[in-house]
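Minutes, project check-in
Item: structure for the 105-residue chain
Input as provided by the requester:
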Amino acid sequence: MSPLWLILGTAMILMGIFDTRLKQWLGLKPASALLVTPNLKQASQKMEKISRWCTGTIGASFFTLGIGDLLPQGIAYKISFGLFGISILLLLTIAGMTIASRKAK
């Protein structure tokens, strides 16, 4: 068990869960609150939600690496890389939504 991966994974999972509350606590506004065009505002809200899922998925991947000794040999790496692949797909979704919303503007 690697405490670095456990701490990093737990922190990222919590950041994904409490992202909006952390931004409010720091005094930051979400990007969707700054936009005035309805299409861009709606796309930004969806991207913010996907980014929270992405942060949580990467955190789960790191957490799985941290508890690797408790799982059977090689299973932790397979689960971790699967979760990491899902987070890459989420990032590609955000990129696609960004391109689509720019073209719709």
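Outcome recorded: The two ends are 49 Å apart (CA to CA).
No further action items on this chain.
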